[in-house]
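Data availability (excerpt). The following record was deposited with the supplementary files.
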Amino acid sequence: MPIWIYIVATVIKSAIVLLVLLTAVAYTVWLERKVVGHMQNRWGPTRVGPFGLLQPAADGIKFLFKEDLTPPHVYKPLFLAAPLIAVIFALTSIAVIPFGNAITLFGYSFPLQITDVNIGLLVILGVTSIGVYGVALAGWSSNNKYSLLGGLRASAQMVSYEISLGLSLVGVLILSGSFSLREIVDVQGGTFLGFIPRWNIFLQPVAFFCYLMAAYAETNRIPFDLPEAETELVAGYHTEYSAMKFAMFFMAEYANMITVASLATLLFLGGWHGPIFGPPILQALLPVFWFGAKVFAFLFLYIWVRGTLPRFRYDQLMAFGWKFLLPLALANLIVTAIVVVVK
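Predicted structure:
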């Protein structure tokens, strides 16, 4: 493939993926407000557009035109940089996520992925780990005791659950023998007994549970949203933020949710594998559909948990991470390694 075609294709894929991701972030907020609203016997957004579908656009315009206040007591360079750090690294991690098979156009094969690296899983773990600096710096630079406590909670929470998250994925890596996300999905092709999908969730259910719990904590979601616990810390690390800087933290949170859902789909739910039928154009599009449907199901689970469970206390959060989740992830890793060696 000529280098100019590769560059043009990469630019086009980057633009499409970024547009889809930002749209998904906006409508995940809408979905959460609607689903939790119905769970609590209320309507959620209904006024702007049919079924409130234009509410994300209205919220975006509101944030753009709100007065952007910067309190005089903050450390301004880091105060301004913190939301940028959070949102940039949240959006960057999507670059190595494959969302379908390669497609052939004009005699050239184009993988449905911005960039294919053979250590894609490590790249995602590294990039998402840096994102906590945005939250920690926001808390420190605000020069506010509530914000500082929120930033410290986020840092401790990330360190605690990042270990369990990483260990929960090692079993999948042992079974697949690769760090490449595309190869991990390829290993999950086929079935058991002719009808059970060969997905890692059936081979590694304990690892999936550990990943799910750690993912809730990593993205600061209920029941683990202690860094922004409004009953204790006003709003936590973003107490002093307003207008678009405030919105950028939520963009980062929901972008991280989509990244976590995509990673769960690739590692445990078979990626884009699913029934393929129909004409060639449909066969090319169905893998993308199956991938999107699995991501949507994982996001719905996120929202369902938020509307169901109460928030943990902070000592319960740390005890759960260190005393239960970490030993469980270690035990699963040891058992998986023994089974693979014995086989």
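Summary of structural features: The two ends are 42 Å apart (CA to CA).
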